[in-house]
Amino acid sequence: MDCKRILETKRLFLRELHPTDAESFYRLNLDLDVLRYTGDSPFDSVENSQRFLENYDHYKRYGMGRWGVIRKDDGAFLGWCGLKFTEKTKEYDIGFRFFQKYWNKGYATEAAKACLTYGLDTLQIPRIIGRAMKGNKASIRVLEKIGLTYHRDFDFEGNKGVIYGTT
Length: 167
Known about the structure:
8-stranded mixed sheet; 31% helix; globular; alpha+beta
């Protein structure tokens, strides 16, 4: 598999997602604790996960997207992190999702900080936001650690949510 590497940090590299990531992507989205604050449903099969990845066109359409987060020392697929452009709102957002066994180790903050810097400095995106459900204290903390500030509350799929952003 030859996936385009986008970013590198001290412990991680971020690369384009590929259909061969389908099994990991499927397992990540099976964990209801991982999905609890996302509003997403699990994939119902590895094949559907693979189809999603085969049809994921954000790299071509927008020059960015959600990227696989790989630990350098052992090649483990930790989850994903990256930037997304939403046509409807004309907003760029940063998002991340990791397997539970990699929570509380600083990986989300490390990857998200690299993505934010890349978006602002390399891609020259004028404003990047992060959304989270109010109950998702860990994700809110990551948004704060990477330098985003609270902007406003919003309706997150019927739940109370917050939007953080660059100033």
